[in-house]
Design brief:
about 45% helix, globular, about 200 residues, homodimer, 8 helices, two-stranded antiparallel ribbon, DNA-binding
DNA sequence: TAGATTGTTAATCGATTAACAATC
DNA sequence: TAGATTGTTAATCGATTAACAATC
């Protein structure tokens, strides 16, 4: 069975709403209400849930909240905790490093920078230590928050250390081997797109 | 003529590559090479460019770099500069505020916070001043970088001030009127998805 | 002219939505 | 039983890709 990217990307949304419902003491949820909450189609919700869930929903009643939360968490692999490193301890890098709202076992463990002054010996280290640490800790996810000009170099280093997924905040298209995934987070582009969406009447 | 979201979101990518080519003194580009650079399909590139471009490409030669850059910039509305405000001057908010890599007339002009200590009188102000300033400056794009618990309240305030597009970094689904656009940037969810993409063999 | 590259028209592919019988 | 809600099968919709004649 094959899960589409579109479905995968909706999973964290479901998880968020389901957990919030659970906190309210609710035990069942219908696809209709879940869809409404997220602005989706209820059939789509049922299809999505069917993809990751072992147990069925109950007609007339809905889905068991605990079961479906469990199923999504398992699907997303929330048992093996996800350690992540950052290269580039500028403002953005430090903001992410100190961002305390990460949920679900996602954990940014440390940052690296080439500027000795930024290193503090606790969670910011010199980039020369990267290879050793990343390999030893068996980390596979890296975040790039260095300036554009240094991004490809950092990327190459990460790949060399065995990083398999890169979250890239530098506005540049990184060249990586086929087995490495890059998610680009071009903040500038995001703002542009957002602004076009409100101004442009020709968007569908 | 109607432009799809998918096409719109590729425009900043084209723009970036085209500008970089221009810097190298290149004057023409083929859809094939542009596609290859971005990992896209060349037919798709031609279709996309045709959507925003008045002038045609020249068979056997390609597209005129200057013309196509102009066309994309015009399409994205890069004449009217885009002023943006942030609410939440924590680490993430300040990182965005001070992020100096925004291009193309996108400009985060100031941030607001309810904590008086964070206000500096130059570009961070108390949230009580928001309504007045936003209305006076006629700003239509806002960024939310406050904790989850305060996000909806801030969102309501923004809507009330005439903000039409919200870039939301709080992990919560905001309720907004139909005429307001929300782009969610759930950092936690992004990392989860990224991690699943490398671990999960069942993704297509 | 020959080779490269374009734009157009048609085909494919996959995601979303609709219709509906089955179940609690 | 009646109402709500499910899962399945088929239809729709739109984006991507292929085929190809036209053009530089």
């Amino acid at each position: 069975m094959c899960i589409s990217i579109a479905t995968l990307e909706r999973m964290p949304q479901y998880l968020r709403v389901l957990k919030s419902l659970k906190q309210q003491g609710i035990t069942n949820v219908s696809s209709t209400s879940l869809a409404k909450e997220l602005g989706l189609n209820s059939i789509q919700v049922r299809k999505d849930l069917a993809m990751v869930s072992s147990s069925d929903g109950r007609p007339g009643v809905g889905f068991d909240l605990d079961e479906i939360i469990d199923d999504i968490e398992n699907f997303l692999g929330l048992n093996n905790s996800k350690d992540v490193i950052i290269v580039g301890a500028g403002k953005l890098g430090q903001a992410l490093l100190n961002y305390n709202q990460f949920e679900n076992d996602v954990n940014i463990v440390m940052a690296f920078d080439k500027d000795e002054e930024k290193c503090n010996g606790t969670n910011i280290f010199h980039v020369s230590k990267l290879k050793n640490l990343v390999k030893r800790l068996n980390i596979h996810i890296g975040i790039i928050t260095v300036p554009k000009s240094a991004a490809q170099e950092v990327c190459d280093l990460m790949v060399d250390c065995g990083i398999k997924a890169i979250w890239n905040f530098a506005p540049i298209n990184l060249k990586v081997p086929d087995n490495v995934i890059v998610k680009n987070e071009d903040l500038s582009a995001s703002l542009l797109i957002l602004s076009k969406k409100i101004s442009g009447g020709e968007i569908k």
